[in-house]
Structures are given as C-alpha cells and as structure tokens.
Design a protein that fits this description.
This protein is an alpha/beta fold and 355 residues long. The chain contains 14 helices and 11 strands. It has helices spanning 2-11, 18-26, 31-42, 49-67, 81-84, 117-132, 145-155, 177-185, 203-213, 228-238, 256-263, 272-278, 313-320, 324-337, and strands spanning 70-73, 92-97, 106-111, 136-139, 160-163, 187-191, 217-221, 242-246, 267-268, 340-343, 347-350. Helix 1 (2-11) crosses helix 4 and helix 2 (18-26) packs antiparallel against helix 3 (31-42).
C-alpha cells in the first residue's frame, strides 16, 4: 500500500513534472525518492508540501475504495504496455470496469462534439464493425462522435474504453451516465486524475495523449480547424501511431481539420476495412484468423522471440532494430494472430512453435 500511495502522490504533482517522473521511474528510482527530488527542486524550503501531498494521496485512495475504482500504478503488470511508451505516462490509472480491456488491440475514434447526423452515423458504423472484428474502440465519452463510437462498439458486441477528463467517478457530460454504466460492463472507464476531480477545461486536451497512447491508430471524423481531435491526432503522430481521417462535406467548416489531415498524408477511411488494412490486420477471414497451412516466412519481430522465454520491449527493440512506438503495433498484430502472448510486467512471449 505504501508503494501505491507513493505513486498516487506522484500523480498529484503538476503534469509538467510527469516527464521527469517517467524518466526516473524508467531508471528504477523508487517513487518516494522521485517525489522528494521534484519537491526539493521546485519548492525548496517548503517542508510541509510532501506531507500534504501524501495526505491527498490517502484521501484519493479512500475515495477510490468507496467508489469501487481500481488504481493501477505504473509498476503494475496490468498497466497497459502501450502507455508505457509515451513520454509522459500517468503514474496511476484509475479504472472502473474490466482492466484486461486495456491490453487488447485498440483503435481510437474521435471527432466533433457538434457532429452532423452523417458524422454520428459514420462513427457508430465504424466502431461497430471494428468491435465485431475484435478491435477495442477507444474514445473520450464526449458528446457527438465520441459517444457514437462507444455506442457503436457496444452494439457490435465488442469492448470500448472511455478516457475521462475528470475523475473516474465524475461522469461528464452527465447525460452519459447510462452509457458509462454500459461501458463499465463491456469495457473500462479510465482517468489519470484522482477520484473526485471535476471536469475542468485544461483536463480534456491533456487526456487526449492517453486516448492516442492506448491505440494503434486514431481515426478522426468531422474535425474543424481548431478541434480538440486534432490535438489527439498530433499526439498520435508524436507517439508513432497511425492517423486516419474520414472525408466529409467540403461546404461545411466542420470538416476542414480532417481534410487537412488527409492533405498531409492521413489515410482516407470509408469503411472499417480501410482501418484494418492500414494496421496490417486480415480482413478477408476476420481479425485474428490464421491458417495452419500458412507458409509465409517467419515474421522478423517473431524471430526475435524464443518460445517460452518472455522478453520485455527494450530487449525486443534492441534485437529487431525497431523503436518501441513502431514495435508495439507489430506485437499487437502477432498477438491477434495467436503467435505471441502478453505476460506479466509488460513482457511478450512467442507461443506458436510451428510458424
């Protein structure tokens, strides 16, 4: 509990410190030491600040327990591997629902809050088809495209992840409480913010890096020139994720941001098959389908793994010569083919001895 409380204390520091936090955690420093280092550097002489932060951490854990919210610290084996590769991962994720959803191959669908009927329909259909293909749909529970994407994934009997810009116990907008309950039953609600945190404007662009960080690709629907969805797209590009966009009505300003992405090289999306093709997933026989007669040469990433011997991302990256941002999508694809399995501590193991 002490270690968890220390991670929660780190999460109460300003977000501008999280890059340093991540660097020190990757270097193996204990979270309690990191907290002292950052406080001593930025608030010298304020001896009462650390006890106050620890008190806040205890309060957050107590509220989480009362609300049945599960905290996942950065050190936990269930912390999503994809998020560990971004430069400023949250020290703690607060979750409601099935945490295992965070380990599934995912695609984000984001777009306008004031979406047109066309945009809502496209978001729902794409999400339903992706979900039916075994892909988890990630979005932000906002009005418009986000909520349509969640509903589409649920209608496709798949999984969906809602990333909140407030505490995991504070549903915003409030009219999405019923949708949030459905997501909790068929996916997971997550937040980097401690329980009870209100939905303040700065938190929404901040959480966009998590939406993209969890995902193999980001699909943008009806984004204007100043849309928050473009922040998510920019985060995706910085994180090495793919960015795709749905074309729309050129007479409406609501599509200028998405069309700008297309001009800059984003792939056009007209159906879920376009997304699956871009990610290298099979569409002819369904995601994850494989044949015992497959005679393709051994995948170069798979060749870096030994059956029964787990390897972490750094070791696989060193052997393959790929950055972790580019390596993760390949590992996810191999996992969907059933030839790679994820084990504790964010490690991967080869399980198909015949390919």
């Amino acid at each position: 509990m002490t270690d968890l409380s220390d991670f929660v204390a780190l999460s109460l520091l300003p977000i501008w410190s999280w890059l340093t936090v991540a660097e020190r955690l990757r270097a193996g420093d204990p979270p309690a030491d990191i907290l002292c280092q950052i406080v001593d550097r930025h608030w010298p002489g304020q001896s009462g600040r650390i006890p106050a932060i620890h008190a806040g951490a205890r309060d957050a854990l107590a509220r989480a327990g009362a609300q049945k919210i599960a905290p996942i610290p950065w050190s936990d084996a269930s912390y999503p591997v994809a998020l560990t590769t971004i430069v400023d991962p949250p020290p703690v994720l607060w979750t409601r629902g099935d945490v295992a959803t965070l380990s599934t191959p995912s695609v984000a669908i984001v777009g306008a809050r004031a979406a047109s009927p066309y945009g809502l329909s496209v978001a729902e259909h794409l999400a339903a088809d992706l979900a039916a293909s075994g892909v988890t749909v990630v979005s932000g529970l906002a009005r418009g495209v986000d909520s349509a994407a969640h509903r589409g994934a649920l209608s496709g009997r798949g999984l969906t992840v809602a990333v909140l810009g407030c505490g995991a116990d504070v549903i915003y907008p409030p009219e999405h409480r019923a949708l949030a309950r459905d997501i909790e039953q068929h996916g997971v609600i997550i937040s980097e913010l401690v329980p009870g945190t209100p939905p303040l404007p700065p938190f929404f662009p901040q959480r966009n890096r998590i939406i993209s960080g969890l995902s193999r690709a980001v699909v943008v629907i009806e984004a204007g020139e100043k849309s928050g969805s473009l922040i998510t797209a920019r985060c995706a590009l910085e994180q090495g994720r793919d960015v795709l966009a749905v074309p729309g009505n050129v007479l409406s300003g609501r599509n200028r941001g998405a069309h700008g992405l297309l001009r800059d090289g984003a792939k056009i999306v007209e159906s879920a098959d376009d997304i699956l093709e871009e990610l290298g997933m099979s569409t002819g026989t369904g995601v994850g389908a494989r044949s015992g007669s497959d005679s393709r040469p051994l995948d170069p990433v798979l060749a870096c793994l030994t059956p029964g011997e787990p390897s972490d991302l750094d070791a696989i990256a060193e052997r393959s010569g790929l950055s972790t941002a580019r390596l993760l999508p390949r590992l996810f694809e191999l996992e969907m083919r059933g030839v790679v399995a994820r084990v504790g501590g964010g490690r991967f193991v080869r399980v198909d001895r015949t390919c």
